[in-house]
Amino acid sequence: MMQYGPREIMTPFRPIPLDVPEGMAPNEFFNSAENLNDLVHNNGLLSNPENLLLYRKALGHSNEFDTSIIYNTSQCILDPLGRPVRRTQVPDNVRHVWSRMNQIIIEYMLEQYPDPEQWLVLAGEASLDATWPLTAPGVPSIRMLHNHFMVFDKAMLREAPFADTDNPNLTDGGQHSLFQAHMRDVYRAFFDELDFHILRPCNDGSCRIVLTGYPQGLPAWEIPGGVEALKEVRFWKEYDMILKGFIDFYRTFFTQVSTRNAPMPKRAYFPERIEEKLLFNNDFLKAAKMVRDRCIVDAKYANAIRWQPAFKQLIYRNDNGKLIVTISQNSIGNAITELLGVVVKRAPDAEAYEKAEPALIEKLLEVRKRLIAADLGEGIATPYWPAE
After folding, report:
1. Residue 1 belongs to a domain
2. Does 55 fall in a domain?
């Protein structure tokens, strides 16, 4: 009988020949223009005038299919703390191009991997909170907004050992989450007020990947129409609406944690909803007091809080072949795959990686052709592939 639970897989990679300068922390160097320049020339697939870079993940999650788009501002915003870390911070024309790139890549993945029983398909992004010091443990290595496109073989997941369910990276989106544990009804009610025309709320449990049992306890929405809906501008506006609602909730809560009876956050997206659903809700304010009181007496706890909005938002295919959107608050250093109960451990093994590399590169170059044909960028030549 099949047992269900989060899985831990091992993914081999080719060691990266990059030397971190003496006296510099690795995550400081990874945010530098020098490192991003290497990313372009050794792993870059496509770039465009909007500074969006499609690249092969050198330290990937999956060697079946794995690529990312990064908003590469390393050459034009040298201050890592000044770079955009979520979609709401990028110009409209960049977000428009980004959405089109997302739609084409997701469509390609679903074409190549049509069977939901065999393949786990996901696409999404995690915010990179620009308020933490660069040397803090767990801060993401590239402090720029980027998203991920991944496919996992479910047969591999079924054979993989179970992950430790107490791993904090697996629990931040479930019953152990601050929002879910203390403000579940308030949180859900706030999202229920969003004005959706395409997205439809999921019934509890219907959005989980049965094999892993994840996501757990998160608001989720089905995308009726599947991949065709991703071709509509309205869908991407609603996708951003989820993020804006999350940001309003997050900022309002931690503003109240920081300062008792604080005014509404400036530049809120849904001020009337905040006033009606949050600032006059006893459960919401009681939870804020609980966290504030602990911060005052527990320095380690207070230091671990991400005071500015930190999130993971993704589109994935469930077991029934439906496309689902969900969003979670981000914890320290966790990967977006863990939202679906997949823990990835990377192992340096050039020989094993090189066995998978030709098929992986073939798919990445094929999806690049589609992006170029749609006038979404120009190809980049590297030691591993030509520009066209």
Report:
1. no
2. yes
In a domain, 309, yes or no: yes
Q: Is the pTM of this model over 0.90?
A: yes
Number of structural domains the chain divides into: 1
Listed residue (217, 247, 261) closest to 307, CA to CA: 247
Q: Residue written as tokens 């703390």?
A: 81
Question: pLDDT tens, 304-325?
Answer: 777 888 788 999 999 999 999 9
- With 70 as the cut, is the pLDDT of residue 352 above it? yes
Range of the domain at 323: 7-379
From residue 239, alpha-carbon distances to 87, 127, 186, 300 in Å are 10, 15, 20, 34
| pLDDT tops 50 at residue 12 | yes
In a domain? residue 388: no
pLDDT for 99-157, tens place per residue?
999 999 999 999 999 999 999 999 998 876 555 555 565 555 567 788 999 999 999 99
Q: Which residue has the higher pLDDT, 73 or 305?
A: 73
Cα–Cα dist 262/254, whole Å: 10
* Cα-trace Rg, the chain: 21
Side chain identity, residue 317:
R
Provide the phi-psi class of 267: left if phi over 0, else alpha when psi is between -120 and 50, else beta. Answer: left
CA–CA gap between residue 147 and residue 128 (Å, rounded): 11
